[in-house]
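Re: that chain you flagged

S.,

Sorry for the slow reply, it's been a week of failed gels. I finally had a moment to sit down with the sequence you sent. For the record, here it is as I used it:
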Amino acid sequence: MKNKTINVLLSAPRGFCAGVERAIEIVEKSIQKYGAPVYVRHEIVHNKFVVDDLKKKGAIFVEELEEINDKSRPVIFSAHGVPKKIPEDAKNYNMTYVDATCPLVSKVHREAENLNKAGYHIILIGHKNHPEVIGTMGQLPEGSIDLVQMKKKQKIMRIKTIKKLHLLHRQLYL
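Prediction finished late last night. Pasting the structure tokens below so you have them in one place:
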């Protein structure tokens, strides 16, 4: 048997998923359409370089709508999604808002709502303070969804007698 040379080609990093690319594009197009500044509720994505670049272009990042002094300026909701209350609050402030929620995250939101209406209790796997988890849990009435965090020492979760149970998980892991 003869030794053969094998060429291994390393590919460059793949980049962001389509939902994150879409969210970044929404911020950039909003700056073009409305002019600077535009506000973004929570970092559009977990990437310092992208966030810093968008800041240079005219995006201002806030955690809550109350932080926005000039409510005549548009606000963009991040790729992670928001609780149902946030668009309602924006409407009450007479704010223009653009929802840049990743379509896959929106799909989880709709699935959670439909399952809840069908009588399911939902278990969500994620991290307590992550914006996507907050957004997903904020789609449903309190008590209809429980969060399980993946930890090294996970406590056993005791679930009341529930006949219908469904498991959901986060979509964006960047």
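What I noticed first: The two ends are 45 Å apart (CA to CA).

Talk soon,
D.
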